[in-house]
Design a protein that fits this description.
The structure is a single chain. By secondary structure, the protein is mainly alpha-helical. The protein is about 55% helix and about 0% strand. Helix 1 (about 20-45) runs antiparallel to helix 2 (about 50-60). The relative contact order is 0.10.
């Protein structure tokens, strides 16, 4: 199959209603479903098209609970992009096997397991990592007369 980047391109648009978003989601699902044999052939996978279809179904089922039309539009945009990149062979085999076919759920870890690993992924980000912290520090320096006329421009 020849790679023609524009053959799968779609203009980004917002859904006008929940029914429109549902119709677009079903159309995208059908595109993925019909492309399963092509994906197996393009990437030379050692799995059946049925396995690909099951993985696609799981990806769509994971977001079934989303009801906000704007959130649905974002999910549709990302999945359409994923579909275009997959069908145009812009992905490596590892991307297909790891991202598309691997289940996206992570096993729950106890606090001690996360502690032993040296991180707690569920904790909030520290204040120093955001731009709010930088603007507060900058405002404090300017308020004290610092930051004006420095040799380094800080």
């Amino acid at each position: 199959m020849t790679t023609i980047p524009s053959r799968l391109a779609r203009a980004t648009r917002a859904s006008i209603s929940a029914a429109d978003a549902r119709h677009r989601a079903i159309q995208l699902y059908r595109d993925w479903y019909r492309s399963a044999p092509d994906i197996v052939e393009l990437y030379g996978l050692n799995v059946s098209p049925t396995h690909i279809r099951n993985a696609i179904r799981q990806r769509f089922e994971r977001n079934r609970h989303v009801t906000d039309p704007r959130a649905i539009d974002v999910l549709l945009l990302k999945e359409r992009q994923e579909y275009q990149e997959t069908m145009n062979c812009w992905k490596q085999l590892d991307h297909i096997m790891g991202v598309l076919l691997k289940p996206q759920t992570q096993p729950q870890k106890t606090f001690l397991q996360r502690f032993y690993e040296g991180r707690d992924e569920q904790q909030a980000l520290p204040a120093a990592s955001g731009s709010l912290f930088c603007s507060i520090v900058l405002a404090a320096h300017i308020g004290r007369g610092e930051g004006q006329g420095d040799d380094y421009g800080y």
